[in-house]
Amino acid sequence: MTGFDTARYYLTILVLVSVPGAVLFWFAIHPFAGFWRRAGVGSAYVAGFGVMIVVGALLFLLRRPLMAVDFGSSWATAGPGIALLVVSAVMRQMWQRQLKLATLFGLPELAPQKYPPKLLTEGIYARVRHPRYLEYSLGAIGLALVCNNAAAYGAVLLTLAGMAVLIPMEERELVARFGPAYEEYRRRVPALVPAARRRNASQSS
User: Phi, psi at residue 58, to the nearest 5°?
Assistant: First the structure.
């Protein structure tokens, strides 16, 4: 086994145990936001991280059969994968300039009285409504291409399917939180494919 093969092996384990769980974390939060506001932020995090840890541990225990189909080291997939990881890292830097740590962890949703929500519409958020999901998707796909293992591809496909469910769920909560302001923002800014140029309110359709 070459050094690259060894790196792919451990990277595949990392993808398997962490990528799906990071999305499942929010499935324990968003659908039950009203309940968690009453139960407390701590309880919400215990539930979210609990789901993440249990799923990650289960996938780790099943890693051998799940990782049995390996397509081998290939720069034909690793090259584009690395390129996507670079794009993902650049996007992360862009949204981190605007997103406070409290917002990243959902505190305006879980404790709006203590952390007043703010609708982000500037910077990268003027081009795409969900830059975090876009960045995470590109990074996950990039990792899977570098791994070139069926387990990594499967984990990413399940993650993307989860996002397809999670985004409308989150947007319903955003509409409830921000009302017409978010509706107008949603009309003029795409969800995941960045707009070529910023459109102002008068250009929305």
Answer: -65, -45
- Looking at the DSSP bridge assignments, the partners of residue 70 are 149
Measured CA to CA, the distance from residue 61 to residue 168 in angstroms comes to 32
Residues of the chain with pLDDT under 50: 200-205
Q: Are 205 and 187 in contact (CB under 8 A)?
A: yes
pLDDT of residue 183: 95
Contact by Cβ (8 Å): 55, 20: yes
Architecture of domain 3-203: Up-down Bundle (1.20)
CA dist list (Å): 159 to 140, 181, 199: 9, 29, 30
Residues 6+ apart with CB under 8 A from 195: 126, 127, 128, 189
pTM of the model: 0.87
